[in-house]
């Protein structure tokens, strides 16, 4: 039975199909966590309920951060493996470092 909850993985050179599948699964879990947070917020009745919301938000943020790290490490592996020379690998690594600096 095919997993229809995730988008179709398109073959390309940015990430391997396995890397894409792993990242999509991670993001689906984060999406589920955020839905749970929304439910907790809608059901919150007393101030102590905010503790549970904060805990779940922190967990979702950590999972999203982990997905970002996973994307970068997968990109480093994939992009530098396709380099045609040491200079090309250095240029690709420089681009990934600028992504890290810009978005982290």
From TrEMBL:
It comes from the Bacteria. Gene3D superfamilies: Metal-sensitive repressor, helix protomer (1.20.58.1000). Pfam families: Trns_repr_metal. Belongs to the FrmR/RcnR family. This is Metal-sensitive transcriptional regulator. It comes from Undibacterium arcticum.
């Amino acid at each position: 039975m095919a997993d229809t909850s995730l988008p179709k993985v398109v073959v390309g050179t940015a990430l391997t199909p396995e890397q894409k599948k792993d990242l999509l699964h991670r993001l689906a879990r984060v999406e589920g966590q955020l839905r749970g947070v929304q439910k907790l917020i809608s059901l919150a009745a007393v101030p102590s309920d905010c503790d549970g919301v904060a805990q779940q938000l922190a967990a979702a943020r950590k999972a999203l951060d982990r997905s970002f790290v996973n994307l970068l490490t997968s990109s480093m592996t994939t992009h530098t493996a396709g380099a045609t020379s040491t200079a090309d690998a250095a240029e690709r690594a420089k681009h990934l470092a600028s992504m890290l600096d810009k978005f982290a």
